[in-house]
Design a protein that fits this description.
- By secondary structure, the chain is mostly helical.
- 77% of the residues lie in helices and 0% in strands.
- The longest helix is centred in the C-terminal third of the chain and has 28 residues.
- It starts with a helix and ends in a 9-residue tail after the last helix.
- 31% of the residues are buried.
């Protein structure tokens, strides 16, 4: 695929992809509207035994007591910061959180399409990938819950997209982009992806060893700088947990 076709792929969305996006948006909004008549989301948001309550409770702590907050937790506060930003911008309403997560989910369909184009250089495979992402039920379910799974998955997807672009162009800012999004994912739910990507980059034979080491340094630096605020926050609150247990 030429660079010109890639640059046009976001500016001019193919009609079949546009139809997929419209139906995906409608399905998610329909599901969200159905949830309004279900008492379960409100119940789990108000019961301390559920993760949803803990994420919301910590977000409200940030909202009322500043960005450091006062709560010491054994899990990373990254997702609660995400909720807090939405509360700050749009008001403390869970439906606003769901809508933002739905928007992120719709954008992810475009990213799935783009990743397939880069990997296979075939628009039909890109459309199939977008279709699967649009109607994959776990994506729809988690976008309308106060759980961190969908945010972590979508940040991983953005990191994967950045890594594909970086490997295609060998441009260091794109390795920083991949590290940034992996760092955001790590802030929300710790994982071993940074180390897996680092070792993958180390053994790419098509790139010189010097460039490989340089790109790894850029990638790891971006990851570290992204998660550093969480480490400092826990240190200032004397939380014995570095990021999470």
């Amino acid at each position: 695929m030429s660079s010109n076709s890639q640059s046009r792929s976001f500016s001019v969305i193919p009609i079949p992809l546009l139809i997929i996006l419209i139906f995906a948006t409608g399905l998610r909004l329909f599901y969200l509207n159905e949830l309004k008549s279900n008492p379960l989301p409100i119940f789990v948001a108000q019961s301390p035994v559920f993760d949803q309550y803990n994420f919301i409770h910590l977000a409200l702590d940030f909202l009322h007591n500043g960005w450091l907050g006062t709560e010491i937790t054994k899990y990373s506060p990254g997702y609660s910061y995400f909720i807090t930003i939405i509360f700050k911008l749009f008001g403390a309403n869970l439906n606003r959180v769901y809508l933002i997560q739905i928007i992120v989910g719709i954008i992810s369909i475009l990213i799935f399409y783009q990743c397939a184009l880069i990997l296979f250089e075939n628009q039909m495979i890109g459309l199939i990938s977008a279709f699967i992402a649009a109607f994959y039920s776990p994506f729809i379910f988690y976008e309308c819950t106060i759980l961190r799974d969908q945010c972590s998955a979508y940040f991983n997807l953005l990191a994967f997209y950045g890594l594909l672009l970086a490997l295609k162009s060998n441009r260091s800012p794109l390795f920083s982009m991949a590290g940034f999004f992996i760092g955001l994912s790590f802030m929300i739910r710790e994982n071993i992806l940074p180390w897996g990507i680092m070792f993958y980059l180390l053994f790419i034979k098509s790139i010189s060893l010097r460039n490989r080491l340089f790109f790894i340094l850029i990638f790891i630096s971006a990851v570290f700088l992204t998660i550093l605020p969480i480490i400092l926050r826990n240190y200032l609150l004397r939380n014995p947990v570095l990021i999470s247990q």
